[in-house]
Design goal:
Strands 1, 2, 3, 6, 11 and 12 form a 6-stranded mixed sheet that branches. The two termini are 18 Å apart. Helix content is 40%, strand content 15%. Helix 8 packs across helix 9, helix 13 crosses helix 14 and helix 16 packs antiparallel against helix 17. It is of the alpha/beta class.
């Protein structure tokens, strides 16, 4: 597993068809009679935004069934807070869906529960994905995960609050010290949350990783070994504890604060700065928040890298609906349908053609800055079989490393031991 994945954004990055095998619809699979496929998907909408993913999936499922009358698709949408737990419960109880869309897949692939991508999609559809993302969907060099959408992260800041605090609204902080200085000024100006720090269970692993990346750290090294308690990571959390959390420049109890709570507060004009992804833009726009963006602040200046996140589609073998799943997934990734989802939520598509279309669409000019950050973005080690286990542990534990009075080394070392144990177990 490579530590960093660099995403090529041109057609030259398309995978060669010669090395890909199998066509969807050939060989085993039901392929006859009426079938109802069950899909479990995550909700990308935001509370109050009237943009639940249920609307998208219902429309898509209806359109698919109209073209394939023998195949119905039932979609259950869960929030990111609970979908991992819900899906695990379904699989463990034997109530396995046909397909799922989540942020990890490798543990089920290692258990032999998932279809290979080559068993689901025809060769042209396999070759349509951005290659590094397709490679990130591999477990032991076999692709099981289909990238669904991607995003990168930038620092968001409220320009109006910056001006109120006497800060330059056109100059985001570039270093940790700049961030600290700005947070102090915002607090002095009466801003409720100078820096929003979401280390609660919704997405603690992402916020934590951004602080690691900003100091040259990571969850894994260049060959995929866990490095959670590396000196760089410990240094990042120690600085965060001493310079932002302890002085009261963040939200209270960051380890209990979820990302969406702070996104909502940013929309209400209560947050001066926070790390965010593209879906924060429409939410801020709806509330007429004047915001700017910048690179992640790093220890000595703007960070070279940033966090990249991809979510994944997968198809389970249990119900034997390989052919039908392949037909539906091919439909999902048609340019028109894939673009509709990325367009709806201001997320980055994962196919060459759809990415190029977004680059041509002036309505998404604000999104181009996130596309630009894909080169050099660091993704979670989702191809590690142990990652799903450690990801869950990170969400509930790593935020404690930044609390006032906490011992970052002890917290990160405890996570490191659990990660190493999970890795050994996965290799058996």
């Amino acid at each position: 597993m490579e530590r960093r994945r660099f995403l090529g954004m041109t057609a030259s990055g398309v995978a060669g068809a010669a090395g890909l095998t199998s066509l969807s619809g050939c060989g085993a699979g039901s392929g006859s009679g009426d079938v109802t496929l069950k899909l479990v998907a995550a909700d990308y909408g935001d509370p109050g935004g009237n943009n639940s993913s249920e609307t998208y999936w219902k429309s898509l499922a209806d359109a698919f069934t109209k073209k394939n009358p023998g195949i119905q698709v039932e979609v259950t949408v869960h929030s990111w807070n609970v979908i991992g737990k819900k899906l695990n419960e379904m699989v463990e109880s034997g109530n396995v869906p046909d397909m799922a869309q989540l942020d990890s897949y490798a543990n089920w692939a290692a258990e032999g529960r998932l279809y290979k991508v080559s068993e689901l999609l025809p060769i042209p559809a396999q070759a349509a994905f951005l290659v590094p993302l397709a490679e990130a969907g591999e477990v032991r060099r076999v692709q099981y995960g289909l990238p669904f959408v991607a995003s990168t992260r930038l620092l968001f800041y409220n320009k109006s609050l910056f001006a109120k605090a006497g800060l330059d609204p056109d100059s985001p902080p570039k270093s940790w010290e700049d961030l600290k200085t700005a947070a102090k000024a915002l607090k002095a100006a009466g801003v409720k949350i100078p820096y929003g720090l979401p280390l609660g269970p919704e997405e603690a692993q992402s916020e934590a990783d951004m602080w690691m990346i900003s100091n040259g750290g990571s969850y894994v090294d260049g060959v995929g070994n866990y490095t959670i308690n590396s000196p760089r990571n410990i240094e990042a959390f120690t600085w965060l504890r001493d310079n932002l959390v302890a002085p009261g420049l963040t939200n209270p109890r960051p380890d209990r604060t979820n990302r969406q709570d702070l996104f909502d507060a940013f929309g209400r004009g209560e947050v001066g700065m926070l790390n965010g992804h593209p879906t924060l833009m429409p939410q801020a726009d709806r509330h007429s928040v004047q915001y700017g963006t910048g690179k992640l602040p790093g220890k000595g200046g703007a960070a070279d890298g940033t966090l990249g996140v991809a979510d994944w589609m997968m198809a389970f073998k249990e119900n034997g609906h390989r052919v039908e799943c392949g037909k539906f997934l091919s439909f999902v990734y048609q340019e028109k349908n894939h673009y509709a989802f990325a367009d709806r939520y201001d997320l980055m598509p994962v196919t060459i053609a759809t990415t190029e279309r977004m680059r041509r669409d002036p309505r998404h000019k604000e999104l181009w800055r996130f596309l630009d950050r894909l080169n050099g973005a660091e993704f979670f080690p989702v191809g590690k079989v142990s990652w799903a286990t450690i990801n869950t542990e990170l969400k509930t534990t790593i935020g404690k490393a930044a609390l006032k009075g906490a011992d970052p080394k002890a917290v990160l070392s405890g996570l490191q031991r659990k990660a190493e144990a999970a890795d050994k177990k996965a290799e058996r």
